[in-house]
């Protein structure tokens, strides 16, 4: 059996987890999309077709594609997993004991295929055939959600991230995404692909309230050589970075963590929306955000089992040192200032590297793709007119679970 291990951002990608957008998108409306962290509503069929093109581009590159919906169905077939998920996602605290009990029983009787669709895609009160004496049920309107849809599950990168020989199950910042992590916790515990496999769970796997220690995978770049680059962003806190770093060091899986303090706004929600690793010595960068003025920290293990954080002069020199490279090649977003801003918004910098110098990106980002091409980076273009409305590119939509090191 191949090993669950992600040794870099650019080594040959071997296995990846995607989530084809389905039912959750049908529940997105102009009045609820912002609450569900989308800027717009997507054409559901077209988004599915675009996602299929992404998956087949990966398969053409010899990458094994796992789909979240299928993994969840197969996980629900394990009785213990189903019981745990229903207890956690349909808890007495969320629904009140009267409603929760009936709802758990109703969902528990469903076939696993249907149940997976509802857990991922949501359920409105108008679609619920059971009646209880619950105050919550009586006070809710027909179009209110009993179970909120999880359209952001499309971005499998964030919910969990594999770093060297283990995984972080990320405590997400926004309530609209927090239920996603439980699906991954169940899959990694009980699904036959993962159960009994030898890997470390660094963080986020316990039934705890992680308070302010938020981290999302879009901010985590496994740059190789035992180094990890993490963005402190709108959704990843310094507390989250320190907790993950401490556990990486404790497990002996990383030598250093470099943290960059990003501006806290939507256009650079995660580090990978403004910076990705494309070849051993090459990064794509949106220079309006990623520049020398950003505070950069270096975390390293200390002798007494603790760690120390020191401020370093620049992210560039920290990366060059970590990767043992004299000078990094930086490719900036293409076009004039207007075009560059537009293309960054459409995820020109959010590419997924499948092997050194070969990346998948949206075909609409013509100026930036041309720059990549001129710099010797091969871009495998995918359509993204609908998918891109969710503000995430190929890297956001993929969670590598097996990738070679440098």
Automatic annotation (TrEMBL):
One of its GO terms (cellular component) is cytoplasm. InterPro entries: Arg_deiminase (IPR003876). It is an enzyme of class 3 (hydrolase). One of its GO terms (biological process) is L-arginine deiminase pathway. One of its GO terms (molecular function) is arginine deiminase activity. It comes from the Bacteria. Its EC number is 3.5.3.6. Pfam families: ADI (PF02274). Signal peptide: none annotated. The keyword Plastid does not apply. It is found in: Cytoplasm. HAMAP family: Arg_deiminase. Belongs to the arginine deiminase family. NCBIfam families: arcA, PRK01388.1. This is Arginine deiminase. The gene is arcA.
